[in-house]
Amino acid sequence: MTGLNHSVEQFILKEIKDNKNLYIKFLQELIQTDSYKGNEKNVAHKIDDFLKIYKIKSEVFPFEENRANLIAYLNDNQNGKNLLYNGHMDVVSAENSKEWKYHPLSGYIESDGKFIYGRGSTDMKGGLTAMVISMSILKKLELSGNLILNAVADEETGGFLGTKECIKKHLKEIKVDFAVVGEFTSIQPIPKSIMIGEKGRLQLEIKAFGKDSHASVPFLGENAISTIVKIVENLHKLELPKKDPPISYDQLRENIQLSLSKKDFEEHKDIINNYIRSMTEFTKTITVIKGGSAKNKVPDCCELVIDIRLLPEQTDDMIINAFKNLLSELEISTDPSKDNHISYEINYNRASTFTDWENSETLSIFSKIFRKIYEQEPLFLMSPATTDAEFFRHDKKCPTIMFGPGDYNMAHKIDERLEIADFLNSIRVFTIFAYNFLKKQLKVKKSF
Ligand SMILES: [Zn+2]
């Protein structure tokens, strides 16, 4: 069991205490930098500039007009242990900026200094900034392994041009021993957690085509809305073989109950139960229906989107098969030569788990540091939403956890904000953990 090196740990904690204002200012600057989808390069350059101050080798990989991924290496040695920190630079749009208390790009801090506001503060410039800063602190220490920072574009739209592309190209030859995706891992009222897996997401986008006619002579037309209604009415039949979640409903409930006071648990029982269901059940939800263009016309087009969340071991093939069976049972055709038919497309991110998490020595070191910094027992959960962790688990075959500052209830919301104490704590965890994972190992001579 690796013991923590106290003098180094004290040095790290002091660095963070002494430079706290500088770190908060850097976070503020990144929140103020527009990185809505398509503009991630703006943030990549800010990170690149920051790392270069500390003489850290970093490279920006531009694509399209103003987009980019970034990879930085703490040192030149890639033959030892490699730890990878991943965070996304893109943020979701903030359409109703007038409804915000402070402008989404303000990075405003109220006078009590508790929270920093702005789009991306929680999802996930807080986590990304903390990872970048941890690298700058680690540059001052002697390590035998290497920390790789991977700041990416495109996460909010599936991650294919961001993390997936980096793994396929720039990180192809690099062995990664452990990865951390720095997304927010609080789901209040549940205490701060470490995510060891995540659900998959499949969006089934269906378009029904019919034949228009005047609504007074509906027999001449083929009603596309009626086709969609038929699917909606029979959606309960779109089922998959049951799979066990990595952590069971009862186990999660017990762990969460133990981590809260009796009063808090009772008060928030319903919300907590719903979160646990989302972590352990296959779900499907209709998210979009659009159809019809005139009040007196038989509609020739209707669209339906079904958002499906999968457990590990449930895959896109299974859904497509189940959907095809449903279509044949309902006698709905996909033949475009027919007046009345449908077409469909899918967007898919796989479910994934860090399979051996319960026996992982590395995770036990991470938990030890988490416990010390957050003064709380670590809680292990499944993320109900998908993140880029799936690419590290599936494509890089690398043990991956998700941990970072911020709360689930803030992501993608109006008045998104981040607790500054949580941000600083995450810098502490990222830095101390990386030090422990990458420090020079004492060589013990074998005695015979
Ligand atoms: Zn995110």
Summarize the structure.
This protein has helices at residues 6-18, 20-32, 40-53, 121-138, 163-168, 224-233, 249-259, 262-267, 269-280, 316-329, 361-374, 389-394, 420-438; strands at residues 57-63, 67-73, 82-88, 115-117, 146-152, 178-181, 193-198, 200-209, 283-291, 301-310, 341-349, 352-353, 379-383, 400-402, 417-419.
Question: What characteristics describe this protein?
Answer:
448 residues; alpha/beta; Aminopeptidase; Alpha-Beta Plaits; 4-stranded antiparallel beta sheet; 13 helices; binds zinc ion
Explain what you see:
This protein is 35% helix and 21% strand. It has 448 residues and is α/β, with parallel strands linked by helices. A hairpin with a 3-residue loop joins β1 and β2 (67-73). It is globular. Bound molecules: zinc ion. The site of zinc ion (ZN) has 5 residues, from α4.
